[in-house]
Amino acid sequence: MNKLIILFMLGLLASLSSTCFYEEPVVYDTDAALPVAVSVSINNGADNTTSTSVTLTLSATDDVGVTKYYASESSTTPSVSGTGWQSYSTSVAFTITDENSDGTYPKTVYVWFKDDSGKMSSRVNDSINYIKDTTAPTAVSVSIDSGADNTTSTAVTLTLSATDNIAVTDYYASESNSTPTASASGWASYATSASFTLSSASGAGTYPRTVYVWFKDGAGNLSSSVNDSINFIVNDTTAPTANSVVIDG
Length: 249
Ligand SMILES: [Ca+2]
Ligand SMILES: [Ca+2]
Known about the structure:
Blueprint: H1 2-21, E1 36-42, E2 48-49, E3 53-61, E4 66-72, E5 86-87, E6 91-95, E7 103-115, E8 124-132, E9 138-144, E10 150-151, E11 155-163, E12 168-174, E13 188-189, E14 193-197, E15 205-217, E16 226-234
Parallel strand pairs: 2-8, 10-16
Antiparallel strand pairs: 1-3, 3-6, 4-5, 4-7, 7-8, 9-11, 11-14, 12-13, 12-15, 15-16
Residues 31, 33, 35, 62-64, 115, 119 line the site of one calcium ion.
């Protein structure tokens, strides 16, 4: 009798523990979908870069969350568990491979994305021309008002000439002969003809003016300077004073 009661009690405890205290959780795969690679853009879609340091703008979606990206100049799909995966962000730095000699090199960057459960997307890519330029432009000449000796106006025209292994992009003109920095504010887009304003003068007279010009390429290399001179002439606009004349009468 007592044995039967004990067995009954044990059975009751066993059924209580399995139904009331704990239930085994059912596991659902909540990260079932692969990440979707939407896009990569190098330097916001720029055509060219003169630096190997670029910025990638990334975009990808996932049912749970994109956690990693893998960027490479190789189109070979990376190992999902390999090295080189980095934390996903919409803007990341990337260094393209450098080249040994000056020139224009098309570069393509491929990007894959991964979610937290290790699923990998297909790839997206973008391309940019890497312009390697370590050679400074050559300043050929500047001439003020086509080589005129004199001007009565401070507004003159500069005829510019320079060459570069890639392209001359900017010029800097000044009456000072001190070399500007590549980031100075006075640089303007290079053209063979440019306007310039000479410094003025107050009194009548002849004022020699010299204009110095430097040239720059897209990589920020500076040429030496060339210069030309012109006389700025301020005409005498004051009428002579007439002294009185007394005629003997
Ligand atoms: Ca997913
Ligand atoms: Ca150059």
